[in-house]
Amino acid sequence: MQQLKEWCSDAPVFRQEVLDWIAKENLWNIWVPKAFGGREMSLTEGLKQLQSLARTDGSLGWTVTLCSGANFFIGNLQPEVAKEFFAQPAIFGGSGGMFGTAEKEGSSYRLNGTWRYATGAPYLTHFTLNAKIVENGVEQKNEDGSPKFLSFVIPASEVRIINDWNTMGLKASATHSFEVKDVLVREEYGFVYNQFHLPQPIFKTHFSVFADLTLWVNYIGMAEHFLEEAQVKDESRLAELKSVTSSANDQLYEIANQVESKTENDAEFAESFIQEVHQAASASVKGLSAVIIGLHPYLGVNASREDAVLNQIFRDYFTATQHHIFTR
Length: 328
Hints:
Strands 1, 2, 3, 4, 5, 6, 7 and 8 form an 8-stranded mixed beta sheet that branches. The protein is built from 9 helices and 8 strands. The protein is of the alpha+beta class. Helix 3 (about 45-55) packs antiparallel against helix 4 and helix 3 runs parallel beside helix 6 (about 205-230). Strand 1 (about 90-105) and strand 2 form a beta hairpin.
């Protein structure tokens, strides 16, 4: 693991040895069923794996989380389409933003747009995206007036990556923008969140809850790494971070157990539960952030050296806090 840390250390992109290690451990596929070549982890098992990666290196945890989270969409695809995509090694990733259009043409859609923040862009075999539905030149609306949209999976060969990820941290996550221009895709390459076609319990998890938990565990893992590296004369100053990370772990895994119980028993995910999970995760991340900021001035000049591990963890963590999920 020390060798892995050295390979990842503030790298602008992952070196081939890191990508080979991820592939060897089959980490892109932690949620993918064994029948499709995946590890078919339970929610709790997968969260522990992601937390361990985030504790090793922020970019490593973040990239595997977001890309394995995109491979999670295998459950939203029709089984024959899933079989087509996963007949060879597949690494999905993309954007959750609504930055483009899908114009209906018979049984296909023509995609156009530029999407931001595709984690792992240079490592992907396929890109995922959300697009507003257009028919006969008119954007379609839901009954509540919101835009009608579908999500799509398209091969990386149909995408132009825009190398615009220039941040202080999470550098190797290579979260670039991408452009899709006049790409025609069959309608079966489209999917809808929370409509699943595979039977494993993990695919009965409401996607908002899945997203909250998988990202939350990254902040905890990075905070634990920060705690491991922090050295101060007065050890009592570390007590609050130890307490907050311990509390976050207890809270997250208690919720994960509740989610697993719901999926195993085919229970509904009530809106109140979904909101409770989101609020708990948001409050926890805010608490971790406040304690790390409060501790930072006591860590000495080393914490400000750009070549120091502690400094990289700080930059990775606070780059991760800019993800919209916990700023709403």
